[in-house]
Amino acid sequence: MILLIDFTNPFYIDAIWLSIAFVCGLLSKRIGLPPLVGFLLAGFMINYLGHHDGKLNSAIDAMADIGVMLLLFTIGLKLKLKSLLQKEIWATASAHLVMSILVMASVIFALSYLGFSLFTDLSWQGGLLIAFALSFSSTVFVVKILEDKGEMNAFHGKIAIGILIIQDIFAVLFIALSDKKLPSIWVLALPVFLYVLKMVLSKLLSLLEHGEMVPVFGFFATFIAGAFSFSLFGLKPDLGALIIGMLLVNHPRADELYNRMSEYKDFFLIAFFINVGLIGMPTWDIWVAVLLLIPFMIIKASAFLFILSRFKLRPRTAYLTSLTLGNYSEFGLIVGVLGLNLGMITEEWVIVMALLMSMSFIISAPLNKKAHEIFDKYKPQIMKINRVRDSQDSEPIDFENAKILVVGLGSIGRTTFENLRKKFGNCVLGLDYNHERVEEMRLANCHVKWADTTDSELWDHVDCQQIKAVFLTMSDFASNSNTLKEMNRVKNRNFKVFTISHYPDETIKYHRMGAEYVFEYKEYLGKDFVENALEQKKISVN
Q: Using CA atoms, how far apart are residues 154 and 145, in angstroms rounded to an integer?
């Protein structure tokens, strides 16, 4: 029996590109790289195999546009202006942008005089656009790295995310200004329109339950309230998607909306990365350009390190932030595709930027995973970067009269802290690296301190001889395990470590790292629920 497959059938074409994207994304993930590297490779493979035509390209284009819109909307949902007003965020992002453009543009123009083919035909406008695009760091990559390490709420994690948002704002402004059309006269009424729209959208979001209507609302807010309405004012739809997200940033359900829409954003962005691969195949000239420009990653990270060290930040914070941001961005690709559509650069340069981004992920991923080990190994050299004493992220110099530490003051940690305080009083000390949370608990007269417990400096300098027990209550395995690794550095450690596990394999790892007791959260949750319910409400089945 011969299996006949009509490769002109749209169903089979979709099956082919989705299968290739899945396999490439999975392989990329398995070797420790973001799946988007695999999606770029999938685009090149589809292009090479010739399994694409006008219909597929149109479908991929449409999905890519949706992905970019949703990316901007979700960025808006995280864009709290107050957090961006810290000078180490906005000043660093701005200064780094200027430095990067000047240095990279100079390098590009210098290479054009050396006779490299891709560079010689590049206009000065195209050179500046490439320099601008390569100045960005990857939001997708950085967020994933910080999530995997449990450092999204760490001080350096918040600074990195803030800098990324400022960079994204610059990119969105460029996208908005790239449309040379003058806005409608009705743009003068935009502030009133946005005020009314915010009230309406906020009310609608509050009325929704937690089901399928939440993502439907997200699509409505992005494409109708945002993109479509802004186009009526003669403004870029992309800008509308971002602004609508910003209008909802302080809504109580903004995080829920962000989490639901992020899943759709990630899916549709697959099409964007595949679309880049469909533009063309790498040539020898393209690979030469990539090899010439990839070392700029070192200059990029070094510039971040230099600028951040000018502020009142500890060397470790500047180092971790710089290492996280030393890569190329998917937003740079978006800017590059826009530059291609405007005729400022050729298709070859979009492929160059795609390969540069992929190569930067391949280089950055293992370095970021070993960031703490690298710091511990080269601590004497890194500590020379900045010797500021009164930094805003200074670690505690002692634990005062504490006998018990509770590390992590989130939903589980705060309950743990309160119960231990009732039993042992003020000899219980809470530690957390969320400044807002620590300040809130201090105002409630709680014995708490700000500290990054994954920092080897903390455990090297603070006397732990009177500590009897440490409770690790952070919600993710990475944060707890990194803290436990650093605590194992304490000489003559005589305190016991108690931690929480969500999965059996985590329990095994905790015990191997030296935890004396591991509470298997999911295993004991039902048991505790039954015991407490029966204790509170006497039930008889007789």
A: 13
Residue 438's nearest CA partner among 477, 468, 396, 389 is: 396
Q: Are 422 and 367 in contact, with CB atoms under 8 Å apart?
A: no
Please state, in angstroms and rounded to a whole number, the distance separating the CA atoms of residues 124 and 174.
Answer: 17
Dihedral sign, Cα of residue 232, residue 238, residue 242, residue 245: positive
The DSSP H or E segment spanning 430 is strand 428-432
Are 310 and 320 within 8 A, CB to CB?
A: no
Residue type, 528: D
Could you give the 3-state DSSP secondary structure of residue 81? helix
pLDDT for the residue numbered 1: 42
| Side-chain-facing half-sphere of 73: CA atoms under 13 Å | 33
Joined tokens for residue 23: 């396999």
Asked if 410 contacts 438 with a C-beta cutoff of 8 angstroms, the reply is: no
58 vs 275: CA distance, rounded Å? 10
Cα 182 versus chain centre, distance: 34
Amino acid at 44: F
Amino acid at 69: M
Instruction: Classify residue 222 as exposed, middle or buried by CB count within 10 Å of its CB (0-12, 13-18, 19+).
Output: buried
Tell whether pTM > 0.90.
Answer: no
Do 159 and 382 form a contact (C-beta atoms < 8 A)? no
pLDDT in tens, 363-401: 888 888 888 888 888 888 887 777 666 666 666 677 888
